[in-house]
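agent> Task received from the user: take the single chain below, predict its 3D structure, and emit structure tokens. No templates, no multimer pairing.
agent> Plan: (1) validate residues, (2) run structure prediction, (3) serialize to tokens, (4) report one or two observations.
agent> Step 1 OK, no nonstandard residues flagged.
tool_call: predict_structure(input=
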Amino acid sequence: MTLFKKILIANRGEIAVRIIKTATAMGYSTVAVYSEADQDALHVQLADQSVLIGPAPVAESYLNAESIIAAAKSSGADAIHPGYGFLSENSAFAKLCLDNQIIFIGPSAHAIELMGSKRQSKIAVQNANVATVPGYDGENQSIAALTREAKRIGTPLMIKASAGGGGRGMRLVTDLSTLSEHLSSAASEAENAFGSGELILEKALIKPRHIEIQIFADQQGNAISLGERDCSVQRRHQKVVEEAPSPAVNPTLRKAMGEAAIQVATLCDYTGAGTVEFLLDQSGDFFFLEMNTRLQVEHPVTEQVTGIDLVEWQLRIAAGEPLPLTQDQIQIKGHAIEVRLYAEDPCNDYLPQTGPIHLWQIPDDDNVRVDSGILQGTQISPFYDPMLAKIIAFSNDRQGAIRKLDRALSHTCLLGTKTNKYFLRDMINHPEFRSGQVTTDFIARNQTQLLATNVLSDNEADSFAHALAVALWVYSHTPQPCRHQDRLSGRMGSIVFLRHNNRDKNKTVVRCRVHYLSAQCLRVNVNDMSFDLNIKILGDRFHVRHDTNTHSGTLFIQERSLFFDTGEQSYHFINATHELPHKPEAEGNGRILSPMDGNLMSVQVSPGDSVSKGDTVAVVEAMKMEHQLKADVDGIVETVSAQAGDQLKTRQLILLIKREINQNQT
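)
tool_result: status=success, residues=666
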């Protein structure tokens, strides 16, 4: 037995909160580490101790191994749990813990090094006769060698970062003429995310399912599998929805995949929690994809269907205990589905969002679990992953889990920053998902349909949303005594101009006229339509009756901003009554602005350079992803106002392109 008493969690956000809860329940003392951006974070508040490890950028804080070791020593922690991401699959960090007599709660440095490299792990499992996807995993990483191998493999081709996952450093290539740009971009993103730009190439399978097996191994040499998770619903190669068990896996296939996963784990004398990922093709054949030598983001669905606390098992195995159960004792009961709530704009290519969390509410339901690390009244930082929470529903069967998850999402509310909440609801209610037939291209194939309800296109629905916003705004800003029917019945109110900030890139302002019919009822005229709305507001909840229908929801008002969520849609309106008129631009203006708070990775042009519309002119990194900024006009670069390494604010000017006037247009 290896005894330890105090655990430092070398992570942040929801996974740090998750680990602290189990560690505390088991009687361990806990230590949180935090960056300057996270000093008020939930994980810091929940831990017994906390230690500042550096500035906000991950390289100076959560990826700073020396600072984390120093934090463990200063706090007296004798064990470190790395969570997922950051240093969790860094073999040098695992060895550093060992060298400093600190227990690393995870596998050995050797296992991490072997399985943490997609290239090396693929070679190892091939030698063990486990099927892999055809491709290239050689040491020669020159652009010439990778280009030569890419041509040999052919398209569709997948470029992957050898050292990491989560969609970072991953690119799908369908046209080899774009290969060079994809290789450079993938290597750069991988280097910044994982400290290694090493790449592998694989033939992209057509319409596969992404199935992963949860395994556990102890220090006594025992290894078991805890069933599979289906992670086929992905956007930009990042998982969005996960479920257990998979609708595509029967008991025979489950047994075969479980045995293959254990065989992979045995190759490296694995200990602790690990996940072996496979691609399952339409004929039922499966191919090794990678092994994640850590706890997965989606581990809660396995916990729900097995009744096992995976973090507790990690701590017990790290302490030298044998596996609590044998393979025959593992039972899968019911069905669990998890969705990831991201701060992102699905209608704008899933662009990560930063901003305030004015209000945060989660459902109160015994069959619903919410893992999050956010707090109302705090800010969403540009320095870290945009995932805010995981919402998990459990039921006896899959359809029941879908129903409970949909209801849970409708009762989850975050106001202040855009999220993918309604995109998630649309996905789990799509007929293809409900039938259990989804493959990894599900979102890409159905994106137009999935995004349709995130944009108000129906004129009446759009007008009603404006009317509801006006009524809530005016009612909230009218002193209660002044709402008395005798004083205001029939009195004309102000003309209010509202801008719908969720979707209106051109900042179109809508003119609305409002007056009270009674103390509780307002008539709003908008877009030649009239709406009589009976309003009741209690705290942050509102109830509005229109005709025979009642609309309820949650609202937050700050200065000129009105945020509200009806459970069916979320809105952000700006009171634009006193704004100067804005003329929308039909074409680009040559002003290249940062789309979000982030780090300017590179500026690829200089003053005087000629550019064409669509050319990449700069790259911004935010929330661990790189975003290429394109020229929006043909012209000449006039000025460059920022340089690589600058920390940018949203809409900060990076460079200016002087439009080239076509002689035929003069």
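agent> Step 4: summary for the user.
The first helix runs from residue 13 to 25.
agent> Done.
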